[in-house]
Amino acid sequence: MKYNYKLIVLFFVFLFGIQSCTDNNDTLDIPAELQIHNFIWKGLNQYYLWQADVPDLADDRFDSQTQLNNFLYTKGTPENLFQQLLFKPASLNTVPGEAVDRFSVLVNDYTYLENLFQGITTNNGVVFKIVRKSIGSSELFGWVKYVIPNSDAAAKNIHRGDVFYAINGIDLNESNYKSLLQNTNYTMNFANYNNGLITPNGISVDLTKTQLTENPILYSQIITLGSHKVAYLVYNGFTANFDNQLNTVFGQFLAGGATHLILDLRYNSGGSVRTATRLASMITGQFNGQLFAKQQWNNNLQSYYEAHSPNALVNNFTNTIDNGVSINSLNLSKVYILTSNNTASASELVINGLKPYINVIQIGDVTVGKNVGSITLYDSMDFSASNRNPNHKYAMQPLVIKTINKEGFGDYQNGLAPTISLIEDIGNLSQLGNINEPLLSTALGHITVNGRMMKENPVKTYENFMDSKSMEPFSSEMYIEVPKGLEKVLKFKK
User: Which residues pair with 198 in a beta bridge?
Assistant: First the structure.
């Protein structure tokens, strides 16, 4: 699922400019109560994208392990240390636009991460959006974006567009929504929606969260309109263990004679860089071997790779997936991509990476603006999952790379603006795949030059508050892999 970079052994990375190193696995100098803290500092010191901007992560900050230990003792909990070592984290920089690192995360149980990156969550199947009833109001209501197949909700007659106003009979507001919706079991109370009026309808459904694997391929079909055969795909996550199924869908598009593609990423908050590269290759095909995206690491790593292994920094379009299976490519020169304010990370990477090569028509809302990627770091000699410290289950998912496209552009931290602005809201919903659904209809109208299919923004929209995916950690991840067998190199003198 994760991307396997062509990185070479990092034992040599820091030999230049470093006079003396010590093995991180020499735990004799690390008190038991500082093992997690030590792991956090050394992982961020080696990999963190903004390592040069954090004085306490400087290579010469400490002359010995003892000095580092004394520093770590002053930082309280592992969570507190982690936040203090980040560069302008969102937790400490709450003014809009002030935070730089909005996405690095520390977890106390890496099992959650490992499951998430395979599409496994504890979920009742309702993927929803929560909005304010009026501008600035603390009162909230929600509506269903889609229901995950084979979930508890899928068996209980819940559908896209259904409106709910309360949980367990308690009206949702800014103070209680999280505690109510994070319960394993709850009753969802529904309402009718009519031109902004929300009226409870007496319908309530009991829901239970279970461990659920979500297939990111929610919906696919070929829509025939005259001479146009339009492939339509709702793709909700770059989950690499479904890459073969994704390739099969593109094989069906190819066999069906698709002449256009509408890629619906409005609910896709990211995932694997490897999968993003493969998806871009399925859309095209004529650019095999050419640069899709390039990584920029922290100063130490970037300098080394540029001098010794520049190919390790690039992701190229490809014509195969696992075990040499050929990619089914549509060879398109134009693609229509539907987006929302939840479209993030690897979804944005696809848009940005394709733009230098083909015409990308983006329809919808401005995207999140996550132009950076992360890796999972474990407390082991090489930061990999092998031989992890058995005394705890902490892991980090810090930002380590920024991505740029062929033209060197990657500064979309404020989001990618649509070609055609069209905001999805409860007032303009239709079922996914219905040719009258506003975003799909607008894309079809652009393809067929049929003005009647072009939709306008709803008269009434609601202030966005939260959605079900962003309530969870790593809701907008773009991640790569720390290669196996790396030597851990510490950057302070003994």
Answer: 193
